[in-house]
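chain below, 486 aa
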Amino acid sequence: MIRMNYILGYRKFAYMLLLPFWMLDFTVVLGQVSTNHRVIILSDIEADPDDTQSLVRLLLYSNQIDIKGLIATTSVWQKDRISPESIKKVIRAYGKVQPNLNKHEPGFPNPGFLMSVVKNGATKYGMLSVGKGQESEGSKWIIKELEKKDGRPLYVAVWGGVNTLAQALFCLRETKSAIEIKQLVAKLRIYTISDQDDSGIWLRNNFPDLQYVVSPGDDYGSSTWVAINSQIKGISNHEISNKWIADNIQQGHGALGALYPDVSWGVEGDTPSFLNLIPNGLNNPEHPDYGGWGGRYELLKPKFSKQKKGSSGVPLEAETHEIWTDTKDNYTPFVNNAFGRALKLDTSHYNDNKATLWRWRGDFQNDFAARMNWCLADYKNANHPPVPVLKGATEITVRSGEGFRLDGSDSNDPDGDNLSYLWFNYPEAGSYKKDFKVSPENYPSVWITAPRVDKIETAHIILKVTDKGAPNLSRYKRIIVTIEPK
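prediction:
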C-alpha cells in the first residue's frame, strides 16, 4: 500500500509538473518564457449581476489566463459611477480558495497581485470621457501594459463601455508617431459584448486596423454572445438553469461560489469575451474565424440596412471598415446512443450565429463546475481534464482523393478515467465549405479520404476527447489539413 501511494503520488506530481507544458502556448520575451494570453478586463460591474458571475468564472482560470488589469468602468446602464470595490470583493473570496485551487493545477495568482491590478476607469459616460485632460487610472494602466516589451498580444475583454480604452488610444495618438501608433495597435485584440456606449464605433472608425470582435450596436437578442444564456429549442438547456447554477456553483463550493449572484437578466453575458483565451486545444483567439468556446466570427463589413436598433440608447451607426463579427455555423449535434455505436447524429439541426457558441456550452459549463469543485475538494475527489495526444503533426498536407490516418489513441486522463472520442470536420473553419464524413467518428483512430478539389483548400478536423468523470470534461486537438489538387 505504501508503494502504491508513492506511485500514485509520483504520477500526480509528474502530471502537475508537466501540465503547463502540455496545455499552454509559449512565447519567448526578452529571454524569459511567458505563458498564457494576457488580458485586461473592462467591467461595468454592479450594472448587472452578470459581471460578478463572469468574474467568478474568470478567476477560476486565472492560472491559464494572464490577467493584467481589472478596470471598473461605466456603460449605458451605469453612466456616472464605477464600482472597483465590487471587483475587490470577489478577489477576497477567491483568496479564501486559492490555496486549494493550486492543489489541482499550479499557477493560480496570489490575491494580492490581483488586487494590485484593479484600477478605476472613467466615471463619465462614453465619449464624454474621451479627450484632452480625460485620463483615468485605467486608461494610463492600459497604456503602461501596452507599451511593455512583451511579445504577446494584449487582449481587452470589454463587459461594459469601452471609453477607457478609447481614452488610452486618444492619448497615444496625441503623443506618438503614426508608426508607433501602428505598432501599438497591432498588439491589441478587442472583444466587446456588443456596444454599451458611444465610444465603440469611434474606436472602430478612428483605428481601423484594430482586431475588433463585436456584434455591433445594442440589439443583444441577435448577437453571438447571447447564446451563452439563450434557451435553445430541441435541447434541455439544463446547464444554464437556476437549479444547475445553485447545485454546481453557488451552494457548497466555498466562498467564491457563495458570492455568485442569482440571475436577474441573463447569466454570464460577459463570459464569451474571454472563453476563447482558455487553452483547451480548440480555441485560437488569433483566428476568430476558427471557432471555439467563445464563438466564431468573420471579418466583414456588416450591412447597415440589416442591423436592428436596441433599447439602450447607444447610437447605431454604419461601420466604415471591416470588423470581426457574427457569422453562422451549420450544426447538427451528436448525442448519446442507447445501443450500438455510442454516438449518433441528432434529429435537430441549427444554422445561425448562436450555434457557433452554444454548440460548446455543455463542455464549458461542465469545465466551470469542475473548477468550482476544486475550490474545496482534494485532488483525488475531483475531476481533471483529459489530455488529447495526436500521433503526428497538427498541420498536414494531402492530395485530392488521398486517404490518411489520424490517431489519438495515446490520449490519457490524469484521474485514470475512461475516455470517449469524437472526430468531426468543421467546414466553416476551413476554406473547403462542404462537409465530409469521418467514420467511425468515435474510434481512437480514423481513416479519412480527402475530398476531391481543383484548387488548394483547407479543412479543420477536430478531435474531442471526453472523460467519464463527474462532471464529464473535454479537451480537443485541431488538425488543419491542406488539400492539394492532383
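The longest helix spans residues 2-23. The domain at 22-329 is CATH 3.90.245.10 (Inosine-uridine Nucleoside N-ribohydrolase; Chain A).
thats it, cya
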